[in-house]
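Quick one, T. Sequence first:
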Amino acid sequence: MSAKEMTGVPQRGASTLWIMLLTAASAVTTLALACATPFPALAALAAVHMRRRDGVALVLAAWLASQVVGFCIHDYPRDLETAGWAVGLATAAVASVLGAYGAIARTARLPAWLKLAAAYVSAFIAFKLAVLVWAIWLGGVEMAFAPGVVMRQFVRDAAILAGLMMLYRAMTAIGVPAVTSRTRTRAA
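Structure tokens:
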């Protein structure tokens, strides 16, 4: 049964709704944790539940929201280095979601929780590799890749992923239309 048949909401509308809801949740995280948008968590959740195009739209919307929060609320510096990092984070966010979709494509026969775990680990690795490329160019490799920092980010984003999954399940339980896996697997 499709999302439209179950709720009267077309699947495209369900995807747009979830992009907005998850972007808002991400913006709250960015606001609370200052410069900590959980791109790997969003990427993993998108890879499990959304079409690739919608997953890319989600991480880019979350990136835009994080830039608005950063520049308007956290008063990020308005200089070329910060602008470079903004572009770098956008490319890292897209790399993250593409990494998550790559993992999903290779784990089709695994249980859902293993797919989600594989998508998260792949998203995190892709994100950090893209950040590394930008850090080499813009500086900050030592700080961004200190083992303690990487481990804290991995655990923090995994906890945020768990929270987002609970939010997803709670919202669908109260009637918000889910984005169906059948639709997600169609060509983007």
